[in-house]
Amino acid sequence: MDMDSGIKAACICPHPPLLVPAIGGSELARVKSTVRAMRELADELGRMGPQVLVFISPHTPVLPGSFTVKTSSSLQGDFSMFGHPEVSIVRDCDLELSLAILNKGKAEGLPIEEATGEGRGGWVTGRRVAAAMLDHGVMVPLYYLSERIDTPLVSLSISFLPYEDHRRLGAVVRSCCEDLGRKAVFVASGDLSHRLIPGAPAGYSPRGKDFDRAICSIAEKGSFELLDDLPEDLVEDAGECGLRSFYAMHGALRGYSYQSRLLSYEGPFGVGYLVSLHEVTG
């Protein structure tokens, strides 16, 4: 194994489409800390010179009992759903790494399926999913990371499998990056509570802020093993969408030494936006 290969860093990124200036407009001023942090993150990751970005997003089409990995040669996305089809990104898929993750995952008994085909269509075990199209959970972070990084991608979905299976998926990613000599960044896309204030997208819960405080503390310290200590009712009350992504990221980092930095947190619209960086040191 090349000692310079494997996961070189991981990060947590929020994905509200309003972070894209064409969509957010004047509202962008209300998330200026997040915008600043995303640009800082792009600078830091760009300095590391990664060869691939591995994304996991809760908005990639989900199969309840299986993960998916996209294996289209070209991955593309735009913001048509948000009124701006002109804002688009096209990237190559790191097909060798994607297939390695698929095959190693299956060999280790991890439920994972291939999302293949070009354009908007594709099939995963008989169910139609978007095979080449990137969702906004990937596109929003990629909009900022693209300012400094122009590499192929790997696109993974979460599932409704147990949290520990998401850690196993992250470990498979780490192992495949090492085996293939890839210098990779693992991007965990996910927002925190959607219930921070009255009128929030998922309604209001006073426990939303408790959940966000707990996740911010875990991310700042890099103590992701403490995700297991989160009470189930707290997670349920929070109305989050990122927790499974964070578990997968922990699986990718576990076994490494790393330094963690919380770059920003805010929730002006009732949804928690966290940006953090976890740089591998050994």
Structural description of this entry:
The chain is of the alpha/beta class and 282 residues long. It has a single domain, classed as LigB-like (Protocatechuate 4,5-dioxygenase, Chain B, 3-Layer(aba) Sandwich), CATH 3.40.830.10. Helices cover 34% and strands 25% of the residues. α3 (95-107) crosses α5 and α5 crosses α8 (243-253).
Give me the CATH fold name. Protocatechuate 4,5-dioxygenase, Chain B
CATH architecture: 3-Layer(aba) Sandwich
Helical stretch tally: 8
Number of strands: 12
Strand content: 15-25%
SSE-based structural type:
alpha/beta
Terminal Cα separation, in Å? 14 Å
| Name of the top-level CATH class | Alpha Beta
Q: What proportion of the residues is helical, as a percent range? A: 25-40%
Give the neighbour order of strands across the main sheet. Answer: 9-2-10-1-12-11
The overall pLDDT average reads 93
Q: What gross morphology would you assign?
A: globular
Provide tags for this entry:
globular; two-stranded parallel ribbon; six-stranded mixed beta sheet; alpha/beta; Protocatechuate 4,5-dioxygenase, Chain B; 8 helices
Structure summarized in a few sentences:
This protein has 282 residues and is α/β, with parallel strands linked by helices.
Ordered list of secondary-structure elements with their pairings:
Blueprint: E1 6-13, H1 21-24, H2 32-48, E2 52-57, E3 67-70, E4 74-79, E5 84-92, H3 95-107, E6 112-115, E7 123-124, E8 127-128, H4 136-145, E9 153-157, H5 163-180, E10 183-189, H6 207-221, H7 232-238, H8 243-253, E11 258-266, E12 273-280
Parallel strand pairs: 1-10, 2-9, 2-10, 3-6
Antiparallel strand pairs: 1-12, 4-5, 7-8, 11-12
